[in-house]
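_Backbone structure tokens_
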Amino acid sequence: MNNTLRQLGLALGIVSLTALLASCAPPPQNQSTSTGSGETKSTESSTASSSTSSTSSAPSSGGVPAPGNDDPEAKKGMILFVQQGCNACHMNPASGKDYPDLRGLYGSKVKLADGSEVVADEAYLKESIVDPNKKVVAGYTPSMASYSYLKEEQINQLIAYIKSLKDQQPVYTKEAK
């Protein structure tokens, strides 16, 4: 029994450490993105110039972009984003091209894998958190787990955080297949 508890504790410790390290990844210094016409453009991040803007995409603690406004719900959503491990996939320098970048998402048109298009409004964001594989973004595989266990208040906080990023430019993009 004690050995099993030790192994479980070690496994939980490793998972926690992995999540912490993933959230502490440094921001990208030089990132190439596709313009959609076969060209690529290179963007360099500048923390000096972006620190003066309230809608900057400069990463906050844990490599996660700071909310684009002073909304306390968005700030709680950013914390929840890290606590739930969302940053392990979304907007992560190590895996960013493999998962949709949430910067600039709110209010935009999203092309889905089935060829249809939706507007990323609150209803779409909620559905994507609770039932993420129902409407998969074109070019991505349906790999996100459901977060339906979250309380309504927590889902609204995550949505407030994503909404606060609407004026930021995505860093990681992927061409739709």
